[in-house]
């Protein structure tokens, strides 16, 4: 049973250790920003820097783990039909809409959607880290220059995670024009108990 | 007048808006991890993701700014004789020493040095973000693989920042073997009032 995240929205939920979370791109070409916090102490949060350090790559896929600011593994990527994700960029927000799309209506973006979804768990907006941006296509040029290109995902592509400890998860269907090729699409996810 | 940061140690201090901070590599081949917080509300902190987003590059040098998690510019890089720094990796720590150097004595690393230096400012270890790693040489391969190579700095190379708001700064002389080519060296810095 999958749950749908409507275009330009977000949701938060908890996982037990061992639970399996699968995030689908039902139509292809969409991005989903994911953040994860320790459920018992949300000051522990996924960290792109610790993950890059310990996985020795910025390209995370099946076989890699996402690590926390306390150097604990939070999520293992167990399957990945997409193979291309980003862990460099922060969620789109009111400020990034004003900066990158000055002629478009301002949207609270994935940042605002995550902040609203995480508030009931006592997590402040300031505690939203660089997200793991599922399906996001951000090539790094030889000179370090980065671009945001449309995702290469096809309908039904997915990434599967195993929770390595009890977690609070925030996840979105991305709101920005560039990251999804100019259209806004839903994201589906499914949780399977590890027990 | 420069101040010396002894090998494998760290320090914290405040800057006023407009102050100029210069960080020198006096011997060449050394790394210095820098973090910055808003002085009035340290929940605002430098963010590699916001910086990559808004500067559209992972290679930061003169002309670039370091941005906060609230999308405000914190520091402008005004001069840079080194030209090569890293904003991908987190400070070395007890955990990274155990992971990368299992046969060497464990050291609290830049992370522990920053945590101790920032504690009097009410900043917890959990609030230490991915640091701006001055002079650190971390090439990203085409497949996303990252390496930590010795810095290319020569004695006297420096980077100069202008504080764009009142800040708390933490800065180290790096403690890890790989990042400085296996030796431990000091770092010098100087603060010039912007007034």
From TrEMBL, chains A, B:
<dbReference type="Pfam" id="PF09347">
    <property type="entry name" value="DUF1989"/>
</dbReference>
<dbReference type="InterPro" id="IPR018959">
    <property type="entry name" value="DUF1989"/>
</dbReference>
<protein>
    <submittedName>
        <fullName>DUF1989 domain-containing protein</fullName>
    </submittedName>
</protein>
<feature type="domain" description="DUF1989">
    <location>
        <begin position="4"/>
        <end position="167"/>
    </location>
</feature>
């Amino acid at each position: 049973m999958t749950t749908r995240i409507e275009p330009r929205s977000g949701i938060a939920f908890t996982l037990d250790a061992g639970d399996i979370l699968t995030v689908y791109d039902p139509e292809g070409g969409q991005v989903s920003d994911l953040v994860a916090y320790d459920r018992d102490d949300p000051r522990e949060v996924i960290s792109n820097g610790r993950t890059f350090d310990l996985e020795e790559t910025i390209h995370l896929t099946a076989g890699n783990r996402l690590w926390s600011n306390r150097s604990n593994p939070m999520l293992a990527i167990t399957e990945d039909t997409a193979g291309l994700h980003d862990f460099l960029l922060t969620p789109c927000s009111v400020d990034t809409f004003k900066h990158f799309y000055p002629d478009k209506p301002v949207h609270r973006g994935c940042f605002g959607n995550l902040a609203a979804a995480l508030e009931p768990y006592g997590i402040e907006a300031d505690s939203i880290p660089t997200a793991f941006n599922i399906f996001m296509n951000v090539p790094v040029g030889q000179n370090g220059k980065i671009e945001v290109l449309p995702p290469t995902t096809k309908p039904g592509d997915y990434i599967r995670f195993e929770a390595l400890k009890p977690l609070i998860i925030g996840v979105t269907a991305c709101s920005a024009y560039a990251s999804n090729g100019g259209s806004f699409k839903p994201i589906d996810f499914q949780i399977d108990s590890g027990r």
